Amino acid sequence: MSETVLEVKDLCKYFDVKRAGKGSQKVMAVDGISFEVKKGETFGLVGESGCGKSTLGRTILKIYEPTKGQILFEGNDITNISKKKMLPYRKKLQMIFQDPYASLNPRFTVGEIIEEPMVIHHMYSEEERKKRVQELLEIVGLKPDHIRRYPHEFSGGQRQRIGIARTLALDPDFIVCDEPISALDVSIQAQVINLLEEIQREKQISYLFIAHDLGMVKHISHRIGVMYLGHMVEIGNANDVYKNPLHPYSKALLSAEPIPDPKVAREKKRILLEGEIPSPINPPAGCPFHTRCPYAMEECSTASPASYELEGRKVACFLYSPRYLKQRENLAIEPLLAGR
Description:
Layout lengths: L3 E16 L3 E16 L3 E5 L6 H8 L7 E6 L2 E2 L5 H8 L2 E4 L13 H11 L5 H14 L16 H13 L5 E5 L7 H18 L2 E5 L3 H7 L2 E6 L2 E7 H6 L4 H8 L6 H6 L40 E3 L2 E3 L6 H5 L7 H4 L3
Helix pairs in contact: 3-4, 3-5, 4-5
């Protein structure tokens, strides 16, 4: 996993909204995100609802046009290219949507749904496309006779498999998986995850995997990014972030994960954050998390922390700046750094 497939630099996506009596304002859905994804790697993305995860995925694929920043795919800057020039990249950049039913055309048969991307991109002859559709159905675990059925005739798990087959029709190099299992039963979730992992092993596809299920993100991801209010607050190896989160928000988020063992669950301390999540229309000055952070200092309300490198991780928190790490004994933040 040495070759970089996707690199995002200071990416921003703002939406203009009109509010009664307040005129036009901007929703800062994604505000200065930077990260990269290697070939054959799964980059997991977690955070509370409304933090900008799905918007980030759609902006990377240019479903939404970015406001600022850069998107580099396989070394090529695709940030501001036209829709016509973007077309060849559509074959390599694909998406699995959260709601499998809403993303499938109800008037098309399964065969037509899977074949449509190949028709748009003028791939193969008609006979070759029919053969390719059959192959894709087999890959995702559906039967050959399903090709003539319509989306409403399938279960949620089967519809998601159809969506995955359609995504694979163009042989993409990078797939945004936007909560692909959130609408499915637990037993079906495992089947879909196993399918995605198997496809990745065979084809070396890179994933941006967006989800709320922290355990599932840890299972499928090589690295994890934690988002809060449009910002990336921590990036690191999946096991490291999961077992020993560094950013105060990451700690609070992971402490909320359900534990199936009642004894362990009783002993685990939940970190409860006080206050409401700020609005992306009027985000706080300085660190976006300082209004809810138990370790907030005066500096946090006036200046935005850089993304500090620490033991192979990136953490956007002043507690991990070189200056504060040297003084941490005097700042009473040892509990935060325990286990490092």
